[in-house]
From TrEMBL:
It comes from the Bacteria. InterPro entries: Aldlse_KDPG_KHG, Aldolase_TIM. Homotrimer. The lineage of its organism: Bacteria, Bacillati, Actinomycetota, Actinomycetes, Micrococcales. Pathway: Carbohydrate acid metabolism. The keyword Lyase applies. Signal peptide: none annotated. Belongs to the KHG/KDPG aldolase family. SUPFAM superfamilies: Aldolase. Gene3D superfamilies: Aldolase class I. This is Bifunctional 4-hydroxy-2-oxoglutarate aldolase/2-dehydro-3-deoxy-phosphogluconate aldolase. Keywords: Carbohydrate metabolism, Lyase.
Length: 220
């Protein structure tokens, strides 16, 4: 699959190609499956407008279906940790609108395109980032962002690659997320620093506090 938005990767990317669900993607991973719906509701009510439920989360299909039905018009619901194309069929059937992988796999990108899903593959090097963009990624998940060098790394990479939309993920805290946007990211992905133990303990008050702090920090 090739990126059909432009034949010249150095030109400005059309608006339709961009991630458009707000500056933060909350990543739900693990837990017991018991609190998935409550966690999603708390995040959306706090202002987070993109929710990624990973395939190694119990009841991930049910969670996507519930969230898409309830919040499909006000938030983007996606599937994460996609490791094989068939998972995209299940996610699309449940109502997901985007798909995230920790790695770059052209077959997954092709199936995402066929199912009408925005594709956010993982990449760590400039070569991988450009290749993902050429294969039609809506945005590239730069992963693991903090371990790669954080905002400083991102700023250096995007100096020559400013035509690529990136969503850094991995090790990003609630209070430093805005630094990645300042470095050029279109959004950030946050897992445990945002969700904490809410999927296991059901502690929604602490989750709401973190989510509201994140949204307020990214709005500045």
């Amino acid at each position: 699959m090739t990126n059909t938005t432009s034949t010249d990767p150095t030109t400005a990317t059309p608006v339709r190609h961009r991630h458009a669900a707000g500056p933060a993607i909350a990543i739900l991973r693990g837990g017991t499956g018991e609190h998935v719906e409550d966690v999603i509701a708390t995040l959306v009510d706090a202002g987070v407008r993109a929710i990624e439920i990973t395939t190694n989360t119990p009841r991930w299909r049910e969670g996507i279906a519930w969230a898409a039905d309830r919040y499909g018009t006000s938030a983007s619901i996606g599937v994460g940790t996609v490791l094989e194309p068939r998972q995209l069929d299940e996610a699309a059937g449940a109502g997901a609108v985007f798909a995230v992988s920790p790695h770059l796999d052209a077959a997954i990108g092709e199936r995402a395109h066929e199912r009408g899903l925005g594709w956010y593959p993982g990449a760590a090097t400039p070569t991988e980032i450009v290749r993902a963009w050429e294969l039609g990624a809506r945005a590239v998940k730069v992963f693991p962002a903090a371990q790669l060098g954080g905002p400083a790394f991102l700023k250096q990479v995007l100096a020559p690659l400013d035509f690529v939309d990136v969503i850094p993920t991995g090790g990003i805290g609630v209070d430093d997320a805005s630094e990645y946007l300042a470095a050029g990211a279109v959004a950030v992905g946050l897992g445990s620093p945002l969700v904490g133990d809410a999927l296991t303990s059901g502690d929604l008050d602490a989750l709401r506090t973190r989510a509201e702090r994140l949204v307020a920090g990214l709005a500045r």
